[in-house]
Amino acid sequence: MSPHWLHGETSRLPVEGTLPDFGGATGWLNSPPLTAEGLRGKVVLVNFWTYTCVNWLRQLPYVRAWADKYTEKGLVVVGVHTPEFGFEHDLDNVRRESHGDRVDYPVALDNDYAVWRAFDNHYWPALYLADADGKIRYHHFGEGEYSRTEMAIQRLLDDPDREIVEVAPRPVEVSADWSTLRSPENYTGYERTERFSSPDGIVFGKPHRYDAPDRLGLNDWALVGDWTMGEQATTANAAGGRLVYRFHARDLNAVMGAATPVRFQLLLDGAPPAEAHGADLDADGFGTIGDRRLYQLLRQPGRIADRTAEITFLDPGAETYSFTFG
Q1: Span 63-106, pLDDT tens digits
Q2: Looking at residue 57, what is its pLDDT?
Q3: Rounded to whole angstroms, how far apart are CA atoms 239 and 248?
Q4: Sequence-distant contacts of 293-296: CB under 8 A, at least 24 apart
């Protein structure tokens, strides 16, 4: 795609405010601390993210590609890692996942949400684009609009190369199949969970032996076995704990982890997932969780329908946080 703009034209990008400072950051990766004043003269793309967010992971290939293509032309990409879950405050976790995700540009660690508040931001992911005078000229919340965002970058850089980047995403970074997506993100901790369907309901913060209902409706989920449902995480207290989820989407992902490795098996409508398995389990449905992160469980080929995923954790200690779909 080659957009046909007049060379140097920036008048159609409104001024939306002044680039806030990053003084509230609790640390930095890949860079010494940066300031808004020190970035004057550069075009700055600020990307709010948290490493378990599937929406950010699907945006990431484009942010990486823009950093690669435009840094030498005057663009500075600044990631702002504002954590959603408690474990995302841990520097070693953020450093490990940043390295694995090939986030090589500067990252402000925003554990106290100070930078988030300075931008009056409310979304993961979010993009803010500032010109060389420190004025915000463009923003986008959520996924998509990649060509439009890159055109805004080109316009502020006065870049004569109007070609749009092509990306080669990892499996977890592939865009959702929006046309078949009927299941929203859901959490397994009691603070934000919805449609929990085990017959006894939620037992807050205490070990309890749960059972599955006779039937799960679409987007219902349930626990089976000995579990403790905490505010953010639901933890299997014994081997053999099961989690069942009725969903309608091409992809099924889960934010999970454990203090020590935990083996699991996923069955799809009672059978091994075969060619529908995701990157983090095999065709028989077996996988292992350890690091607290997003795990890609299913990517279904062919026709998408209502399906039931049943995950059995073969060791105690599994922590589940959320399910996302694509």
Answers
A1: 999 999 999 999 999 999 999 999 999 999 999 999 999 999 99
A2: 98
A3: 28
A4: 293/51, 293/52, 293/97, 293/255, 293/256, 293/257, 294/51, 294/52, 294/53, 294/54, 294/57, 294/172, 294/253, 294/254, 294/255, 294/324, 295/253, 295/254, 295/255, 295/256, 296/171, 296/172, 296/251, 296/253
Angle (CA) 81-291-289 rounded to 5° is 135
Q: Under CATH, what is the fold of the domain 17-173?
A: Glutaredoxin (3.40.30)
The CATH topology of domain 186-325 is Jelly Rolls (2.60.120)
CA angle 76, 78, 84 (to 5 degrees): 165
End-to-end CA separation in angstroms for the chain: 26
pTM of the model: 0.94
pLDDT surpasses 80 at 48: yes
In the chain, where the domains are located: 17-173, 186-325
